[in-house]
Amino acid sequence: MARISGIDEAAWASPWRGIPVGTKVIFSMTLVIMALLAPPWPTAVLITALGLGVLTTARIPGRFVAAAFGVPAVFIVLGAASATVTLGEFEGPGWRWGILGIRQADVGLGVGLLLRSVAGTCAVFVLAMTTPMVDLLAWLRRCRVPAPLIEVASLMYRMIFIAWNSLLEVRQAQQQRLGGTGSPRDRFAEAGRLVGSVAVRTWLASARLADGLAIRGHESHLTTLPPRRQPHRIPGWAAAGVVLIVGVALWVR
């Protein structure tokens, strides 16, 4: 499983980081809107191809993209299946296996939902995997988002890494003690101890973080200096891809 910190490090090293955050937000949100409103074929397929192409040129390792797709893929498949499979009797042509059935009219609905979801996820990944959180928070601050909201998001972002690192350390300690090799009952008990240990370690780490902020006189927000770097423009082929997708969506409708 890819480390969360690895995805963040890839965003820091990506050549797309030099592109202004506002430009990437517009780019990504345009693709998301097209995935939601435009017909799934062929618009969603083009959005997915463009998103994967951007991630490739942004030097995001494929294992990170595959790992990030893991959790959304479960919800995407379940959502498409729930829109396609019917319980009980139904009218019209279709297929039936006991109490389960698929109406022929629902196949297109399920496939369309699947294509839209994958395309929208790729569009969001373009922003998430090429923009470190510190850049995004600085951009929100320039957009005059209330400081308490930004501060809560910043603290939650740090706590995610603390909890994830605690999970990795405790799991590694269990594996070194031949964890996961016993009966299902023993594995279930190990999972419970894992959750308990991670909760305790995360709580203690959050308490130390709060004490450190209090010692430094933290009251409202942390003042940081944004990095100075030469802004880049979005590649011409990526902008042309967005224009092509918008044109295809309008033509299909």
Automatic annotation (TrEMBL):
Keyword terms: Cell membrane, Membrane, Transmembrane, Transmembrane helix
How does the protein associate with the membrane? Multi-pass membrane protein
Give the record's GO CC terms.
ATP-binding cassette (ABC) transporter complex
The entry's localization annotation reads: Cell membrane
Output the CDD domains linked to this UniProt entry.
EcfT (cd16914)
- Annotated Pfam families: CbiQ
Alphabetical GO biological process terms: cobalt ion transport
Q: Which domain of life is it from?
A: Bacteria
Q: By its UniProt entry, which InterPro entries does this protein fall under?
A: ABC/ECF_trnsptr_transmembrane (IPR003339), Cobalt_transport_CbiQ (IPR052770), ECF_CbiQ (IPR012809)
What sections of the protein cross the membrane?
Answer: 25-52, 64-87, 107-128, 149-167, 234-252
Q: Which NCBIfam families match?
A: ECF_T_CbiQ
Tell me the PANTHER family matching this sequence. COBALT TRANSPORT PROTEIN CBIQ
The protein, known as: Cobalt ECF transporter T component CbiQ
- Give the species: Arachnia propionica
